């Protein structure tokens, strides 16, 4: 690993906090090189005898894209009730609240997403309570997915507790996504901080994503040269025009282990009392240490401990390209695991809806994602996991920041398990809108979460860890 010295770390920190300014630069200059995190990192150094850290390398995201793993490409589309009843006889209309009041089933199309978060399968491997806990999490998903019959399930991280798993991470991964898989419901995943900490084989993020894709998911490998692995987007198409109506932006919020390092390798790198400064750096990965079975893919992935400026730049540029020439921006949502710090600010400053029974354990550094959302203007709602006691939504600027609902019996907390649902509704030729609610394992739905007004005497000052 290349050591980034402290002065450079501070420099990086300052640059990242100037991300607003960087976006102004992004908007006005081409080509774009946001290289601050990668200065003094020599990407092509496979030769250990030539360990020169001082070659500047300008790293742009569009150099390398992993293509050998074929995600599910069957297009996801908004569907009308008649599309549903012809494809599935069990789907009952009364379970699907619609915002439209159209008398014609074919004039309204809907897309429903259930967010499952923090199931923590495998937490109790080798215990007597572990299998029961996992069976409980499976039951929660079975209940909620049978009730909601969504068009997509998004898993927002901590599907497994990798750090407690000895050998078979992929088996637990399959338990997590298996309910959706068995029910024939499309699914996609992003990583949390516990998904890649397993010992032994098949436990790295790279392995898990490869496995997830092999099972038929809509997950994708992000570009190889931006930090993290699960950085991608999913387009959802209009039923009538085939235009992209909805975009889901998926981000790898990092932490845990590095994408391709098994735990044993990474343990050697860990220092006691890893301080904030060290956490803020982006680490280099030496391809010679990759032990994944997929090491034929010759470009490494980088570690990350938050959503970095380069991931933000990837979003910004990809969105610009995707939307170039479009009359209207699609409606977009973003999913990731660890909240950005605007979650803390929105609870401090705005009336929010729902509970904050944890503090907000937000990302230690702001890579500028929120400002990029505002700048592009497509993302109207973000939903995360990570803090099991939190399920609130609050409007910060023009972006609704929401938590999902702890879905698993794994992980801390005994708050009633549930899931957040987002339902998009479009009238034929008309506007598109969305609703969100919580559905619990009891089958109850909560459409209007209780308001919480800001308490200026007790603001949360910084992200808890
Ligand atoms: C499993 O769920 C049942 C019913 O909610 C509960 O009583 C039990 O304690 C749970 N067991 C574990 C290990 O989570
Ligand atoms: C894990 O795998 C290793 C090597 O394949 C094996 O020696 C060990 O017995 C396994 N442990 C468990 C708990 O299955
Ligand atoms: C690792 O994954 C491969 C391919 O998915 C599988 O054949 C193998 O059994 C897995 N190994 C373990 C120990 O789970
Ligand atoms: C994973 O391995 C452990 C230890 O061998 C075993 O007890 C457990 O049943 C396995 N889990 C699955 C899902 O196969
Ligand atoms: C167990 C617990 O602390 N519950 C609280 C969670 O947050 C809601 C909303 O702020 C409170 O009403 C609960 O008492």
TrEMBL record:
One of its GO terms (cellular component) is cytoplasm. Residues 1-27 form the signal peptide. Pfam families: Metallophos. InterPro entries: Calcineurin-like_PHP, Metallo-depent_PP-like. Residues 111-388 form the Calcineurin-like phosphoesterase domain. Residues 74-105, 260-291, 446-465 are annotated as: Disordered. The keyword Signal applies. It comes from the Eukaryota. This is Metallophosphoesterase domain-containing protein. The keyword Lipoprotein does not apply. GO terms for molecular function: hydrolase activity, acting on ester bonds. Residues 260-286, 446-456 have a biased composition (Basic and acidic residues). Keywords: Signal.
